[in-house]
Amino acid sequence: MNLNTNINTNIDTQKLKNTLLNFLVPIIALVLMLVLVLTVLVPAISGIPRLQDQLGTKSRLETQLRDKLSALNKLVDFQTIVDADEEVVSRILASEAKVPELLTQVDLIARESGLNVDRLSYSLGEATEEEVALPYSVVNVSLGATGSYDQITGFLANLENAARLINVSTFRFATESGEESAGLFSITLVLQSPYLQVESNAVTDDPINVDVGDPDFEAFINKLNSLRFYDITADTQFVELEESTPEEIEESVEEEQPTDETPAQ
């Protein structure tokens, strides 16, 4: 007995392709969208606060630069006044030590006040830890003189009204002995005169806080102009320069005036 069985299997491949495409394409699209969100959108969203901070910083800088430009234009309009004010300030707060001019000024003030100058020396030396932290350098001047009470107080007043800045660091005195020296005092002072070396560096975003039209600024400049300037001329006799170390100045103060001391306020 022969049994012939013919099985014909017809597979519709087109339907299979359509089914696979309908299933795979959404999955692939979903994966691509997820990758896009993770790589682009999430970092962009997380960076929004930082971008807002940057925008605020740039906005404030723009406002500051506009104010600075306005201030610069005003300074240009008053160029003559600004130059005159700058010259006054530079003479009061020197940019260099200018030791001969400083000692000559101290000597002139002392003699004009009636003091008899016995010794005058200066010291630059190395800055201490406290002085290193200061934005300026200092010239130390040691002055030994003799005079009456009125002459000494007059000297201090004239020193205060002198244009170049001079601070009294140490003031010691002793009564002179002898009938001829009655009413006289021997004094030793350590004076300090600051000077500031200025380096001009162009800084874009630093504000300008000077207003030449401000009443307080005008009063300040008028106060500076009222100080006495000891101009050095061709006829000025410079005192002989005697340089000492800071230690020598301190030792001379200790040796000459061992008893009475009035620290500077």
TrEMBL record:
<dbReference type="InterPro" id="IPR014717">
    <property type="entry name" value="Transl_elong_EF1B/ribsomal_bS6"/>
</dbReference>
<protein>
    <submittedName>
        <fullName>Uncharacterized protein</fullName>
    </submittedName>
</protein>
<keyword id="KW-1133">Transmembrane helix</keyword>
<feature type="compositionally biased region" description="Acidic residues">
    <location>
        <begin position="242"/>
        <end position="259"/>
    </location>
</feature>
<dbReference type="Pfam" id="PF04350">
    <property type="entry name" value="PilO"/>
</dbReference>
<keyword id="KW-0472">Membrane</keyword>
<dbReference type="GO" id="GO:0043683">
    <property type="term" value="P:type IV pilus assembly"/>
</dbReference>
<dbReference type="GO" id="GO:0043107">
    <property type="term" value="P:type IV pilus-dependent motility"/>
</dbReference>
<feature type="transmembrane region" description="Helical">
    <location>
        <begin position="20"/>
        <end position="42"/>
    </location>
</feature>
<keyword id="KW-0812">Transmembrane</keyword>
<dbReference type="InterPro" id="IPR007445">
    <property type="entry name" value="PilO"/>
</dbReference>
<feature type="region of interest" description="Disordered">
    <location>
        <begin position="242"/>
        <end position="265"/>
    </location>
</feature>
